[in-house]
Amino acid sequence: MGGSPSFLPPPQREPSLSHTAPCLRAHHAAACMPSPPAHGFSPKKAIKTGPNLTYHGGPILSTKPILDVYICWYGHFSKPQRRVVLDFFASLKKASGGGADADATAPSVSSWWGTMSLYKDKRGNAVSSTVKLAGQMSDRKYSMGKQLKGADLETMAARAANSFASDDPNAIYVLITSENVMVEDFCESQCATHGIVKIKKKAVAFMWVGNSASQCPGQCAWPFALPQFMDYSSATETALKAPNDVGMDGVVMNIASILAGAATNPHGNAYYEGNPSVPLEAATACAGIFGPNAYPGAPGTLLSDSTGSSFNARGANSRRFLLPCLWHPLLRICKPL
């Protein structure tokens, strides 16, 4: 799977409002948690610097107006757990076209995805404006076991593509593993990743996200859980209340992050900053930022509902989500919803 990011906090340095400490990324990108704040840190002293993504001329997922998504559920997921993810994808339909969240009060999931239309290839074609769930399949019997290597994910993606009889280069295959499945480097260095597999001599994009609920919610579902490596005996930090389910809300956050990266840098040669083998991408460049006034260890100013749950985007079926900040290619900043 390539290099891997580290969840351990880096040495303390001058913090930034728009760019937490970067971590290495396996394949083309891996979703990582931000580092916790230093003791005595004040956001007023933060320096407003940030990432600067560059277009390197490669293809993006822009060949069709609709980006088809195929989900492969690996392991056991309850119906309510599946519903969280399915409602997220239903919410990505273009609101102006009567999508599932067309009646959702802003900020909405579809408006979050709207930033993707600002990413264009060398022909001027933008990332697909609409994301559609084209199919899903389940592997409840753990056909490849409960301990997976990086190569196993590629095999699973290839099997899924063959099952759906699709080699569409503008589609993406989303592998989601249940909380009792251990994946190489999961929790130790990554929460999710994306890459490419060859199907009928065509390069097809895939991504993997794991449910961290019972393994490392503090790493992969922050800020709905606190990092396990921190000592909170004398601290006042508390986790935010998740709007749906801690593990599945973490899954959605990481799906959103890696989906944005896969759409704008599917082959590792489009939009990114830094070394192409360890790039910062559309969402991972803004890791840890979910709202205005964010700083390392603090997600920013968020909305809350009557139950006290925190979110920043409304979606289909009155669903609430917390989505990562995206890098805005025109303003060239990390711009929260």
From TrEMBL:
Keyword Repressor listed? The answer is no
UniProt-listed InterPro entries: EXORDIUM-like
Domain of life, per UniProt, equals: Eukaryota
Pfam families given for it? Phi_1 (PF04674)
Give the location in the cell: Secreted
Q: Which UniProt keywords apply?
A: Secreted, Signal
GO-annotated cellular components: extracellular region
Chief location: secreted
Which PANTHER family does the entry link to? PROTEIN EXORDIUM-LIKE 2, PROTEIN EXORDIUM-LIKE 5
**Assigned protein family:** Belongs to the EXORDIUM family.
Name the record gives this protein: Protein EXORDIUM
Which species?
Adiantum capillus-veneris (Maidenhair fern)
Q: What high-level taxonomic lineage is stated for the organism?
A: Eukaryota, Viridiplantae, Streptophyta, Embryophyta, Tracheophyta
